[in-house]
Amino acid sequence: MLKIRILGSGTSSGVPRIGNDWGACDPEEPRNRRTRASVLVTTDTTSILVDTSPDMRAQLLAANVADVDAVIWTHDHADHTHGIDDLRQLMHLRGEPVRGYARPFTRAQLEAKFAYALFGRAGYRPTVALETLPDSLTIGDIRITVADQPHGGITSAGIRFDSNDKSIGYATDFHDMTSAMRMLYTGLDIWVVDALRRAPHPTHPTLAQVLGWVGELQPRRAALVHMDQSMDYMSLAAELPSGVEPGFDGLEMPA
Question: Which domains occur in the chain, in start order?
Fold first, then answer.
């Protein structure tokens, strides 16, 4: 069974922000407590982690995950990469570096920032065996298709996962919808998609934009992630149309 687990549903500062800033989010609602954005896509035989957030250790402990078949990085921003050191424990458990994939620009940035993890240093072997993420590849029984998404002055990797006639799309950190993205995200069973906030933002979509794209692309089910402290879970749940829900840390969605 193809499924996705939302490991982290928050934006770069998480919810609450440091200073115990909950914004409009009810602190008594546990689904408002959001770690930084990441997901895990699995079948019975294959497990793929998307991004290594600074909260990855706690996320993998909560999901009871000790190994993955591969890691895909969507882009090189800190909230999506700075948990990379915690892959070292996965490397020790598996006895070899974890397979990793990133688009060319993201790969170059990761290699510059985390050379010690990717190439090893001073007697420490590499943690990750990093390769370039192509437009399509298959890992285990999951077929992966990629489109580059505009994200301010860079691009992020938008990803579609297909297995046994089921499909999941993951779209985070983008601010516009291109024709390649429309093709990628058409006909999905599940779409997990960035909806930062209601107010405009230069590098992320608004709630209204995302709901427009959901209406256009017609996924069977959609969940919102990468949300900031203005996006209260219960308020959103009451206003969203049928088939769309606020994501939360730990939510598992079978396709």
Answer: 3-254 (3.60.15.10)
